[in-house]
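DM from R.C. (forwarded with permission)

"hey, sorry to bug you on a friday — could you get me a structure for this? deadline for the figure draft is monday and I only need the backbone to look sensible"
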Amino acid sequence: MPRIVKLTDKIQYLQVSYEPLSADVVVVRGDSAWWIFDVGACDMAVDFINALPRVLVDARVGENAANLDSCSDASVPLQKNIVISHFHRDHLLNVVRHCNGEVLLDFDTLYVGSHASKVVGEMSDRKKIAVTKPLLFDDGVHIEILPIPNSHAKGSLALVVDDYVFLGDATYPMVGHGEPDVYNVQILEQQIKMLKSLNASHFCLSHKRGLVRDKSSVIQFLESVLARRQKNENYIVA
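My reply, with the result:
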């Protein structure tokens, strides 16, 4: 069963699950909001997000954020902001799940790329922002929402939180669906250049044991893929 893992006093995540496939769900405690990266596709992810308290006295994030709801003199109001990495259902399904006509997730604002925005569709009772350029926020933690070039899924977003970059599946190849999985050479070059420009030293990849990788190891791997490119070929088999 997936468990909740604490990365820092401000960051924790619900591990990936496989039945159903449901991506890691990252939660960041800001001064004015919870920043949630991906929402998964399983019931446990819904419960994890909905249990995040709307008011707090204690700024600390424990092993399970739901436990903080026991504060008796809670006075800090918190929004819930969701950032979706890309449009694949294991990362965003819970945003569009309903029960008796009501959205299952408790949240206020949704940040999505262009393709994920189309999958989500219109939202009458929530604010939806389609991200086409970097967005920066100072919320007690440094927050950046960045469009990221990648072969895996069009319109992907990364979330930067202080020294951590949450990449979702952006470093993975395009799924071949019966054909080989591949990287687009030009896009891979753009991605490596962008990742090198980031100051954070921890890169976090969905679906990986432990989630967190060293920046240099991720870039080294991508560069090793790029080194296998063949002249006049637009794609590299993963």
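R.C.: lifesaver. The first helix runs from residue 43 to 50.
me: no worries. The chain is about 20% helix and 30% strand.
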